[in-house]
């Protein structure tokens, strides 16, 4: 393989000059840069993404910002990641995963490490939006901020998901319902999916005249137990529950059983979660699927379209689909 020393020798410059040309840390004359670019092309030098960017104006790498913040379910995050990786591979791109916000965005974009970005864990008023809007690289958000500022976004329509889950319970005659939702830290960050889920749930309850309660719930067995106990203390007549918390879901069902409220005999449950979560439980749960892998692939499709035509920015929300699995009882 060609080395930076080979490139310098072919271009008739020092190794440090080649390094500066690759990193952009110092200005290089147009004539010198042309010689270096020619040497890179002739030698097939591919030391890192910066070299490829200099030689071809692209890296064939997509950046994936997936910050692993407290309260997120890593298993679900990895389903989105798998979708992005699959879509990127199909389109001929590698994926550089970034798990921290601070400094990552500026570092990878200013040094031409990536051609474009997929951004996850989006908040209603996301602090990253101004920087993303100013980038020369296109980006797609998995999530929907309150004002996307012209950026492309894709996600499940969580507002409709929350409303659809409530309407299913209302149709079965349930008039006292609860949402066992995302962890408190996710809610306090005003994470987009949690905000929209709550809005949809509350709006449908109010429209249907249902008594309702929203309980942010830690993603743990202990958190699920505490939420069920709180729910039964505050709404002892509850008959319908929407669960939007994949980790808590099985423990919620177990705790209801321990408290003498069998599912679906005494309490009906609708979950909002990936399909594999709903079907893996001892009692299969009626659910609205979160098609995480599919959304990840759609994000890459949108991104490649943006790289061809920057005017293709759009917001795409996937319509929720409810699958019956017998955990909702008709009260008649």
From TrEMBL:
HTH cro/C1-type domain span: 3-46
Signal peptide segment: none
Domain HTH lacI-type, first and last residues per copy: 2-56
Keyword Protein biosynthesis attached: no
Keyword Transcription: yes
Pfam family, one: Peripla_BP_3
Any one Gene Ontology molecular-function term assigned to this protein's record: transcription cis-regulatory region binding
Keyword annotations of the record: DNA-binding, Transcription, Transcription regulation
PANTHER family the record matches: LACI-RELATED TRANSCRIPTIONAL REPRESSOR, LACTOSE OPERON REPRESSOR
Official protein name in the record: Transcriptional regulator
């Amino acid at each position: 393989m060609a080395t930076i020393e080979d490139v310098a020798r072919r271009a008739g410059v020092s190794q440090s000059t080649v390094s500066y040309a690759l990193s952009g840390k110092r200005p290089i004359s147009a004539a010198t840069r042309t010689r270096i670019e020619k040497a890179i092309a002739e030698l097939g030098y591919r030391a890192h993404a910066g070299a490829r960017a200099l030689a071809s104006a692209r890296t064939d790498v997509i950046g994936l910002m997936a910050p692993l913040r407290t309260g997120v379910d890593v298993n679900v995050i990895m389903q989105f990641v798998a979708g992005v990786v699959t879509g990127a591979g199909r389109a001929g791109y590698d994926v550089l995963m970034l798990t921290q916000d601070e400094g990552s965005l500026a570092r990878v974009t200013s040094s031409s490490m990536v051609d474009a970005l997929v951004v996850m864990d989006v908040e209603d008023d996301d602090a990253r939006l101004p920087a993303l809007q100013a980038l020369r690289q296109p980006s797609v958000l998995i999530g929907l901020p309150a004002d996307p500022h012209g950026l492309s976004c894709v996600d499940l329509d969580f507002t409709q998901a929350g409303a659809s889950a409530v309407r299913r319970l209302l149709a079965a005659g349930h008039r006292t319902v609860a949402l066992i939702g995302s962890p408190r830290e996710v809610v306090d960050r005003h994470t987009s999916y949690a905000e929209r889920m709550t809005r949809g749930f509350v709006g449908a309850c109010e429209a249907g005249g249902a008594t309702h309660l929203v309980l942010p719930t830690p993603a743990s067995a202990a958190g699920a137990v505490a939420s069920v106990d709180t729910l039964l203390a505050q709404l002892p007549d509850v008959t319908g529950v929407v669960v939007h918390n994949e980790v808590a879901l099985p423990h919620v069902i177990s705790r209801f059983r321990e408290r003498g409220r069998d599912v679906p005999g005494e309490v009906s449950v609708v979950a909002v979660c990936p399909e594999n979560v709903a079907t893996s439980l001892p009692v299969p749960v009626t659910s609205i699927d979160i098609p995480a892998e599919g959304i990840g692939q759609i994000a890459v499709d949108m991104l490649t379209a943006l790289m061809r035509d920057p005017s293709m920015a759009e917001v795409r929300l996937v319509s929720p689909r409810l699958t019956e699995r017998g955990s909702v009882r008709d009260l008649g």
